Every structure is written in structure tokens, then in C-alpha cells.
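SEQUENCE-TO-STRUCTURE ENTRY
===========================
Question of interest: how does this chain fold, as expressed in C-alpha cells?
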Amino acid sequence: MSTRLSVNINKVATVRNARGGSLPDVIQFAKVCEKCGAEGITVHPRPDERHIRYEDVMQLKGVVATEFNIEGNPLGVRAPGPAESTDALGLPYGFVQLVKMIKPTQATLVPDAEGVLTSNAGWDTIKHRDYLCDVVQELKESGIRVSIFVDADPRMVEGAARTGTDRVELYTESFAREYHAAAGDHMAEERAIAAFVEAGEVARECGLGLNAGHDLSLENLEYFHQRIPWLAEVSIGHAIISDSLYLGIEETIKRYKSCLAAK
């Protein structure tokens, strides 16, 4: 099975929102990414809509031709603005309701706290097992594949398996940080990846599909994939958007896909 590259387009929306208006156009950018070889589009509509807005998700529903992955906290609720109502916009305000309306290929459950700059931890799948079981069942009944964002901890992977989820996504920030610090030291690189290989093996033993994401980049992606070649999908946003400023999006996607090619 080849590893799919899903491009997270949140940062494109961040640039748009910084100025107001509709430039850059996140819908057009998603189309271009797919045209250039992306095998999925990822968005993370946060309740404060500081990047991707719920309206963007609605528009992307009819645009994404590959796999559509919507990330978010099931507890997240978007509060309507002063002149808005659910009837006027035709939009749901809860994350779960939004996902059930859109019916993306995949919903990735992320326990991001309100006000955090970016996702910074995986689920405690033991403590929150009952809650996650309910959400997973509800989404799967709507025909949506479910992935749970977890740290590289075998216990959390095993806990996720007990919820009935289809996949887990490994939170890779610590790997990226330690791999960068290794600076070519093979033993240090092995230490950086060890917990992720173990967690990935546990996921495979549990019959779970395996995704990964957060701070993966051209610096570390090839090594990560070589050590865990059974990855189903990587979701990458910040690094891809940053690299595309120098390289262009077509060349950037080409290089990321090369990192995922079987060697």
C-alpha cells in the first residue's frame, strides 16, 4: 500500500484572513494541489475560525475530488456572529454536526484546547474511552472513516483500538524536533524514531490504519517513511505551504511525494 499525501490548507486561509477578502482563494488552492498530485486535502475548522472557516468546509465539499479529511475536536462549537443564525447560514455549529453534514472521507479527532496556537497533544484514549466510543460510532454510522490523534504511546494506540476507530494519527512533533537536533547522528535519529516505530507496530497489530502528522517536512519525511513504510497517510500543512513560497506548489508536492515513494 502506498502512503497518501494529504495537504493541509489551513495556512492558506490564515494568509487570507490576515488581510480580509478572498485572496488567496483556499478553494482554488485545493484544486491546484490535487492537480499537482496531492492525494487528499485536510482542513481543521476551529471554533474561532482563525484560519479555515465553516463556510470554506461547505464549499470544499463539492470541490475535493481526492480524499477529504476534516480535523477537529468533537467538543468544538462555533458560536454564531451577532448577525448570524443557523437558519440564515444553513450551517451547523458543532464539529460533529458539520462532519456528518459534509460526509468527508475521513474525520480526524483532535483534542485541541481552546486558544492553543496549534495542536499540541494526542488523546488520552483510556481516560476518554467512553466519549470517544460514542463519537466514533456516530461518525461511522454516517459512513465516515475515523482517525484518532494520539501520542506515540502503545497504551494510547491500544486504547484507541478499543473505541472502534479505523485509524490513529501519530502526533509527530517530538520526532521532528529530535530528528532536527540529531543533525545526522544515526544513533540520535534512531532514538528520535524509536517510539513511533513501536507505536506504529502496535497499531498494525491492532488492525488499525496508520496516519501521521505535525511538523513533518522535507527534512525528516523520507526517514520517517523508510522506518514506518506501512503508513497509510501523512497530513502536512505548514511545511508544504512554506516550501511552496520558494519552490512553487507543484514542485513542492512532487518533492514530498518523492519522500513517500518506495525505495
